[in-house]
Every structure is written in C-alpha cells, then in structure tokens.
Amino acid sequence: MTTHEEWNKFLNSMISLKLEKYQKSKEYEYWNNRLKEIDDCLCNELMEDQKCFVDEILFEIGVASDHEKEMLYEQGMKDCVFILKILGVLA
Length: 91
Description:
This protein has helices at residues 3-22, 26-45, 48-86.
C-alpha cells in the first residue's frame, strides 16, 4: 500500500468515527427530524413529476455537500500536520 493510500485510509477512518459520533448527537437528531418534516411537506405539496425533479436536485446538492465536507476535512488534517511540523512536534 502506498503512502497516499494509507493516508486516504486513515482519513476515511477518522471521518467515519466523527460521523458515528455526530449521528448520536442532539444536533443530528434535530436536523434529521427537520429534514423529515421538509420531505413530508414536499411530498404533500408537489405533483409527482415535480417530486422527482426536486428529489434529483436535492440528491445532487447532498452529494456536492458531502464531497465539499470531505475535502475540507482532508485539508484541515494536512494543515494540522503542516503546522505541527513547523512547530517541530513532527519530524
């Protein structure tokens, strides 16, 4: 396994652990319930063809948001390592 692959495996593990912790929080519970309310509202107020269109758009927004969060988390980890190297904590 290359260093890059090991780094990606490490980051994915860290992200998974953080996500599991977040999914047990009150904040997650709130937003999960809020999204269900919004989904119910959309399902009751839209025509069938509109529902498909909105679902497709919301799915794409979610995928883009997830990707952005992963990139920001990865950059944060790289910045942390960079700072620790500058401070002499890491060789």
